[in-house]
Each structure stands twice: as C-alpha cells, then as structure tokens.
Amino acid sequence: MPAKLRKKLLDYYYSLSIKKKMTLAFMFTLSLLIILLAIFTFRISSGILIDKAIENTAQNLKLVSEKLEIIFENAENYSNIAITNNTIQQIVSEPPTDIPLENYNKYFAMQESLRNIVDSKTFVDALIVYDLNRKIYDSGNLGNISNISVTYFSKFAGSFYGLTWEDTHASNYLKGNDSRNVISLFQKFNSARTGSPLGLLQLSIDERYVANQYANIDIGESGNIFIVNKEGMVASDTRKDRLYSSISKDVYFPWALSHEGGKIFHMDGQDVLVVSRGYARLNWVIIGIVPIYEITKDNQILTEKFFGIGALFVIAAVILTLLIAKSITQPLNKIKKTVQSVQDGNLDVRLDIKSRDEIGALAKEFNKMVGNTKVLMENIIDEQKKKKEYELAVMQSQINPHFLYNTLESICGLADLKRNADIVKIVNQLALFYRGVLSKGSPIISVEDEIVITQTYLEILKIRYGDQIDYTLDFDPQVYKYKTIKLLLQPIVENSIYHGLKNKRGKGHIHIQGSVKGEQLVISVEDDGIGIKKEQLDKIFSIGDTDSDTDSDYKNRGFGLKSTDERIKLYFGPEYGLVIHSEYGKGTRVTLTLPTLETRGEA
C-alpha cells in the first residue's frame, strides 16, 4: 500500500468517533472471520470431496482393469481352444493339394470350426489361422486379409511356444467392407500329435468393445477414462478422434507411468484430478481425468449460501454494535464536555457518573486530577526555578577560581620582576574578561562578545605562559550577528589548555573557527595537545551518572564538556550540542552546533 494512501486511511480512521470505530471494527472482524471460516470450510470439504473422488475413480479403474482381465483371459483361453481343435489340427497338418474341391472342403471345414468358436464370443471380432504354406483361414465375413504371419513366425522362431498381444492397431482385414481398430493376440501352435510347428493363430478384439467396458462409468460431466501404452499413445478411448494420439508431453504422464492413485495437476488453465492404474498384461495405464471444479461445484454452492447467511449475521452484529456503542459513548461525551470546560480554565467542574465500570473509574480519577491541577502548576513553577538555579550553578562552576588565583599570583610575580607594562596589560585583560563575564547579568550574549571573552582569556594565559601557547581565530563575519550562551567557548578552551596543551612538550596551538551552515551556527575548538583516550572519550557524557570513574583530572575535564553540552540543549533544544573528535597523542576537536538566532531586537 502506498504511504500516502495509508496515511490518509489512518487519518480518516483516527478522525472517527468511538461509535463509528466500534461499528467498523466489529464489521471488519466479523466479516474477516466469516470469510476465513468459509475459506477453511471450503478447503477442508473440497479436500474431502477430492479424496472421495480419488477413491471412487480408483475403484472404477479397478473395475475396468478386472473387466479387461476377463476379456483378455478368455481370449487366450479361446485361442487355446482353437489351436487344439481336432479339425483345425487335422486340416493344417495335411500336406497341400492342387485339387480345388479338396481345398474348398478344407477351407469350408476350417471356417466352420473357427466360426463356431467366434459366434458365441461377442468380444472376438475375428479369428484367423495362417499355416506354414501361407494359406489363410478365417472365421467368416472377412475380406482383404493381409498375411502378416511372416513377422510373427520370425518372432517366435526357436521357441516351442509363442504368444504375444499386439497393441491397438488398424486391422489387417476388412469386415463388412470396413476397417477397424483392434487389439490382437498372436499365438504359435504346434501339432498335438507330433509337436511340429503347424501355423499361427490371430484373435482380434475390436477396440470399441474395450472402450464400451468403461463408456458408461460416470466420473463427472466432462470427466473421461482412457487407456494409454507405456509410450504415451492412446490405445483406447471413447472419443475416437483421440485414438493413437500421444500424451507423452502432458504434465501428468510421467507421474501416471510410475504411480497408482490420484494427484491434482494444472492443465489448460484449470486444475484437474488425474487417477491412474496399471494393467500389466498389455503394459497399459488406465487413466481417469476429471476437472476439480466439477468435483467441488456442490461445495461452491454451499459456500455461496454460507456467505449469504454470514452477511445476515454481519448486519445483525452491526445493529447490536450500534446499541452497545451508544451506551458506551454517552458518558464519554459527557466527559468530553467537562474536559472542554477545564480547558477553558474552569477548575471547579466535577463529573457525576454513576456507573462503576472503567468509565466510572475514569470520571473518579478525572475529578482527582482537576483537584490537583493547582498543586501541579505550582510544582511546575518550582521545577522551572530549580532549572534556572542549576543553570546558574553550572555557569558559575565554569569560572574556575583557580584561574583568578593563578592570575593574581602571576601579577605578583611580574611585580617582583618589575615588569610594570605586563602588569598593566594583564590587569586590563583581567578586568575586560570579567566585564564580559558579567555582561549586565544576561546569560545570552552575541557571538562577537563571546569571542572577545575567549580572546581576553587566551591573552591572559599567553602573558602567564609566554610562548608555550599560541592561538588563531578564524570566524566568518556573518557569525557575529548571532547570539549564544555566555561562557560557552571559555570552558572548552580551558579544557584544551589544562588537559591537552599543558602536558605536551613544546609549544601548543589552539585553532578556533566559526561559520554558518544552512540554519546552523558551527563553532569548533581544535588543539594539538595530547588528546583523549578512546575509553575516556566514550564516558565523557556519562560523567555524573556513575561513580565508577576514579581519575579526578579526567572528571574535571569531562564535567566542563558535559555541562556545556547540557546548557546548550537546555537553552536551544536536544538537536544542538557538542561533538568531540579526538586521537590520543595528536589532539582534540570539539564542535558546537547552535541555532542561528540574530541579536537584533535584544536589550
């Protein structure tokens, strides 16, 4: 969801009354529960229906397999009957003759024997005998018979007994002047008396007879049962246009080859249930396919009715919610009006609500709150006074008395050396320093005045320490017109000298610079002193919150920096303050960030 749209929806929701919020919440929650219940119910019941469909279809496929087994088992039995028939054995065993009448009598006798076997067996479409002399005998009503015995004589060569089933194929004969698709049994047969090879028997079954065994099995309005071989060719189907077509590239075929049972596949934009069962005699796979929507269509009707009833429940719940919300919001509206009176300054109001529930408890606490408001206001005034006292104490703590003592001692030392000019200079600088510090009692001064105080402080120290200390000031002229807190830079400079440069060998340097960046005033104090160790640097702003520090020099240094940071945040806000960067042995840089507040209009 886009952020803007989400914000608008949240704003709209927050602007609603409690009554409307409760109504919407109940509607949403109840509707969501009904939808989830319907979804889960549909999924569970659909799963049950699909499992039941798998079980029923598997039973139907088992029935088809049993019917096929009966047909093909009987076909092999009748084939054995034919090849052991005495007439057939005798005629095929006799040597060939050129006498037409004798040949006709043999053919007629053979045909009668074959017809007697076929006539009572409706599943047998044709019975054909091929002898070793390339003569063909059939069960009658057959024409244009192609002699295909050579292929099978070669196939059975070297074996005493041979029997094979040929998958669905176009018949090698015409029956009633029509060709047909048949499944054929080919069986080699021998003389019952001598055991020598006599010929080949072909028993063919019309594929339509096989398809009729499952044509009337109902597995759905558009469901279908069909048979394929191991190569994926359709060997039998009630839809004859699909015969000999291949399903080897269909998504379910690899699974059907190696599994029995049911599984759901996505085909042609819809989910279908595929149930398979193997038929070993002809290496066939019997497959049943039915669309899932047909299995679950009754369940969908039930779900739609469920949603209709759920909608009625939602309407009833909304009406009930409105009544409940009204009983809750009436006392809340009364509380709202009373709060508005208090907001207007009337502290004598009282809530009179009789209920003892959460709203009654709220009214009781509200009355206590109004009674204590005056006391709380007085406490706030006291807290503000304490804050100002803290500020004054912090500011005064920054004026290090040792600085004054040391300066006076320096004046005495200069007097002993009769350096009157330096005495006059240091006294003037000291007077200028304290004149700037006092600044008519105002805690806020211009940046320019703060620079003067800091520069005066540095000049006094230069007289005291001579060439050991040097400094540079680098300020953008724009910064002079802004205001800051008095004695903001002096504590930082003092830290730099006494804790950074004092312990350094050779001359030390302090670089102070200031500039305006956007709406912020940035001032930095950088020294090339000994720096601060990382473990001490991490603890500077926690000084005073723990008693774990034992290094008093480090505490004194940290307190100066921490108190300055707190004063900045107190006056200008938490987004301003100090940032310290230090590398031990190389130096320290303290950066101050202040708002750009101009001094114009200040008294």
UniProtKB/TrEMBL annotation:
Enzyme Commission code: 2.7.13.3
TM regions (residue ranges): 21-42, 306-325
Superkingdom in the source lineage: Bacteria
GO molecular function ontology, one term from the record: protein histidine kinase activity
Membrane topology: Multi-pass membrane protein
Record-annotated Histidine kinase domain positions: 485-598
Reactions catalysed: ATP + protein L-histidine = ADP + protein N-phospho-L-histidine
Gene3D superfamilies per record: 6.10.340.10, Histidine kinase-like ATPase, C-terminal domain (3.30.565.10), PAS domain (3.30.450.20)
Enzyme class: transferase
This protein's record includes keyword ATP-binding: yes
Record protein name field: histidine kinase
